[in-house]
């Protein structure tokens, strides 16, 4: 069990009074660490070959914090993902904005029970205000609990950052191909809704994604940040360096939607914290 303290300070920045977050998920520990140390956080997983995300059949993802708006005092803290013991920062500075964590979890291969990577989802206080104004988070439990709610959220001009850290070494091409297969599968799932021109533009966007993705070796603990931007792009960052932005809204939105469809994005906030 864990507890986040001093939420009200950051909450006042949006003109709301939030109660202190209550424990949500057992097994997660809030650990006081400097953010600078989290980039080199070690995991307890082995260094065996990393399987492609497309082969992942089971996903473990627990949303941990009771509000998208968190205390500024938490910026020096991390939270531990229990399956891997990996530390993730409660806040990240992505571009000019400080973003706060919405959730944390690990992705696994079901038949091997092998962790593939740990991911956290982040949003800025400014964008939390946009979602509140749009009425999307009036029911926090449902805010990211279904495809419909995810689609409503993605219609808003907000940034959503997904921080991914592998638990084992792999090749950049191996990881890239896994993400690509996931996007192609989503395109096939919606093929009846797409015109030939739509499909052509999507394939061009996926090709651009592949071209911008690093082909180098990816070490255990390396950091990727994929940001679905407010203007509909997908910004790719690796080891703190920006590699470019895929200017294709479908690719950007469905990179996020893919995690919702897998049942990852659930129970983001407690309802009481949005009233």
Automatic annotation (TrEMBL):
Gene3D superfamilies: 3.50.70.10. Transmembrane segments: none annotated. GO terms for molecular function: intramolecular lyase activity. This is Chalcone isomerase domain-containing protein. It comes from Mortierella isabellina. It holds the Pfam family Chalcone_2. The lineage of its organism: Eukaryota, Fungi, Fungi incertae sedis, Mucoromycota, Mucoromycotina. Residues 100-260 form the Chalcone isomerase domain. InterPro entries: Chalcone_isomerase, Chalcone_isomerase_3-sand, Chalcone_isomerase_sf.
